[in-house]
Design a protein that fits this description.
Blueprint: H1 10-19, H2 26-36, E1 41-44, H3 51-63, E2 80-83, H4 87-100, E3 108-111, H5 117-126, E4 130-133, H6 135-143, E5 154-157, H7 160-165, H8 169-177, E6 184-189, H9 194-203, E7 208-211, E8 222-228, H10 234-244, E9 250-253, H11 257-269, E10 274-277, H12 283-294, E11 300-303, H13 305-308, E12 318-321, H14 328-335, E13 345-351, H15 356-366, E14 371-374, H16 383-386, H17 446-449, H18 477-480
Parallel strand pairs: 1-6, 1-7, 2-4, 2-5, 3-4, 5-6, 8-13, 8-14, 9-11, 9-12, 10-11, 12-13
Helix pairs in contact: 2-3, 3-4, 6-8, 14-15
The structure holds adenosine monophosphate.
Length: 487
């Protein structure tokens, strides 16, 4: 399927060409015609599925007939309001709107807390067709009478499940009252809980339900592992894994802001270039960390859930859970930072004994048993004691394809000490590119395991259509629709 066949305008098609997108993703293929037709939508789509373009493109097309170059603010009323739970997501969504609307005289702007009101007021006063906002700051503007929402005939609730978790629903209900009753409403959520369905009943009118992946499903392209490590050794284990896998960049999730700060300082002390991102940081500090990470200047971004929500960092190959989240759904969101846009990714969780319960909850939610690997050299709570303990392995990870047994010990196929090559050469240290990216994943759908024998290129982390080398049999059904045919 092509973007042309979805009936998108030449201006939008030109912008898509510039972005290098060749085919719509499944959520785009399903959502675009429905939204163009003016229907309400309830969409369950994982992050990384291309959902932002899935709603932005048809919205731009619906606004296009009113697009104009007039300098008069009155000619640029708010026509679409996009609400997101976090500042970072708001910024990213607005960047997408700007990229897709680059050949159209449609104005967009983003407003969020933690920044001075004045520049936002100026932007609003000069006229904006597409407004992206976080609910709290939008209500500040409503209270100050610096925004008028009565003309917004399209409303998007992006990552609605997170807005629910963050307690934004009363704010959203207030905002809804300021919008026209006969608007079009689009609700996107990574997970599809009963509460979300109830919200949809309240907010949407006869919606079309679109579900591109099973609810609460993690991407089949993400290799998930649990490293069983006592709390006191997590930092050492993390540093070890970063070095052992020669990890170029990763997001590391921590449970608390204090924990994130502490870990960040420890990593810096260990010579690893790290930055922390959480809600106690100033907006400028958060943007700086994120930009430095995106530019590749920062290797490890230590983040809390709220700050990391919606981050889209291209080709992020690794995500670590330094602490498991207390809310199982957050695991799905966290690991959705990798394996995006058809790339493979790795989600490694460091799990202390007292987090086992959380792990069970997560496994129940994702209906998948995650492979548990032990790092023998990090089992003792104190590094000192290990100096005298017999070392049974270095923790280097060899091809883990046979490691679907839970709680494997050193000496198994998954965790083996470096060994001399038969010919007495250098110790065998498996490299990342030798690893089967699907190894260690216990998948609920056997078909995806077929890919194991096909020798995927684990180092390929590029976008969907830029990956001509993948064979059809390797591509999970979810992604088949928008991958380029084998060349
Ligand atoms: P999202 O799920 O909206 O956060 O999008 C995830 C990533 O996929 C973003 O980096 C988009 O730029 C990218 N993307 C979206 N649609 C396509 C497409 N049709 N082809 C290639 N990349 C895409």
């Amino acid at each position: 399927m092509s973007f042309e066949s979805l009936g998108l305008s030449p201006e939008l098609l030109r912008a898509l060409l510039d972005m290098g997108y060749e085919e719509p993703t499944p959520i785009q293929a399903q959502a675009i015609p429905v939204i163009l037709g003016g229907r309400d939508v309830l969409a369950a789509a994982q992050t990384g599925t291309g959902k932002t373009a899935g709603f932005t493109l048809p919205i731009l097309q619906r606004v296009q007939p009113n697009a104009n170059t007039s300098p008069s603010p009155a000619r640029h009323p708010i026509r679409c309001l996009i609400l997101t739970p976090t500042r970072e997501l708001a910024v990213q969504v607005e960047e997408s709107v700007k990229s897709y609307s680059k050949y159209l005289p449609i104005r967009s702007s983003v407003i969020y807390g933690g920044m001075p009101m004045d520049p936002q007021v100026k932007a609003l006063q000069s006229g904006v067709e597409i407004l992206v906002a976080t609910p709290g700051r939008l209500l500040d503007h409503v209270n100050n009478k610096t925004v008028r929402l009565g003309t917004a005939s399209i409303l998007v609730l992006d990552e609605a499940d997170r807005m629910l978790d963050m307690g934004f629903i009363p704010d959203i209900k207030r905002i809804l009252q300021l919008l026209p009753a006969d608007r079009q409403t689009l609700l996107f959520s990574a997970t599809f809980s009963n509460e979300i369905k109830r919200l949809a009943d309240d907010f949407l009118t006869n919606p079309v339900t679109i579900e591109v992946a099973r609810s609460n499903q993690t991407s089949e392209l993400v290799e998930q592992r649990v490293y069983s490590v006592p709390d006191a050794r997590k930092k050492d284990a993390l540093v070890h894994l970063i070095r052992e896998f020669a990890i170029p960049q990763a997001i590391v999730f921590c449970g608390t802001k204090q924990g994130a700060n502490k870990l960040c300082s420890q990593l810096i002390r260990d010579g690893i270039n790290a930055a922390a991102i959480h809600s106690d940081k100033t907006q400028q500090g958060r943007e700086e960390s994120l930009n430095n990470f995106k530019a590749g200047e920062v290797k490890i971004l230590v983040a809390t859930d709220i700050a990391a929500r919606g981050l889209d960092v291209e080709d992020l190959p690794y995500v670590f859970n330094y602490d498991l989240p207390h809310v199982a759904e957050d695991y799905v969101h966290r690991i959705g930072r990798t394996g995006r846009a058809g790339s493979t990714g790795h989600a490694f969780s460091l799990v202390a004994p007292d987090e086992e319960r959380n792990l069970r909850e997560i496994e129940k939610l994702i209906k998948t048993k995650i492979n548990v690997v032990e790092l023998p050299q990090f089992q003792s709570a104190s590094p000192e004691r290990e100096k005298f303990a017999p070392r049974s392995g270095s923790g280097s990870v060899s091809n883990a394809s046979a490691s679907n047994t839970r709680f494997e010990r050193a000496g198994s196929d998954s965790e083996r000490a470096p060994r001399k090559e038969a010919g007495g050469g250098r110790p065998h240290r498996p490299r990342l590119e030798d690893m089967d990216p699907m190894a260690g994943v216990v998948l609920s759908e056997p078909s995806a395991m077929e890919s194991k024998s096909q020798g995927q290129d684990a180092s390929a982390h590029s976008g969907f259509s830029q990956r001509p080398g993948r064979r059809a049999a390797e591509v999970p059904a979810l992604l088949r629709g928008f991958m380029k045919a084998p060349t």
